[in-house]
Amino acid sequence: QVQLVESGGGLVQVGGSLRLSCAASGVTFITYTMGWFRQAPGKEREFVGRINWSSRITYGADSVKGRFTISRDNAKSMVYLQMNSLKPEDTAVYYCAAGRFRGVGGPLEYDYWGQGTQVTVSS
Q: Residue 52 has what pLDDT?
């Protein structure tokens, strides 16, 4: 049974930091690209970034570049999202997901999702 479990969310003041963790089980972790997404109330889900097996990172929204860092530990089947200089607009439920590219040159599709962890940034 595949499980992705996020943790580390909470309430933080503007300018503060949080480190989210995502523990994966039931998958061959190194074969998956791990992504982070977020969804704020009333908004569509937003791609934050992803990291492949060799820790090559692609960031999504320009608003997180330079403030958020994604990393992974393949030995522990863990992926992390370090969030610094947090802003009220970072308030959202954050999700991790595990995905694979469908063939050479094919799309990245996410097969598994965690339940999410709430991040609230207060001003």
A: 95
Mean pLDDT by 10 residues, the chain (123 residues): 96 98 96 97 96 94 93 98 97 97 89 97 94
Residues 76, 74: Cα–Cα separation, whole Å:
5
The residue written with tokens 């580390």 in the block is 8
| Per-residue tokens: 49 | 């970034």
SS3 letters across the chain: CCEEEEECCEEEECCCCEEEEEEEECCCHHHCEEEEEEECCCCCCEEEEEECCCCCEEECCHHHCCCEEEEEECCCCEEEEEECCCCHHHCEEEEEEEEEECCCCCCEEEEEECCCEEEEEEC
Phi and psi at residue 69, in whole multiples of 5°? -135, 130
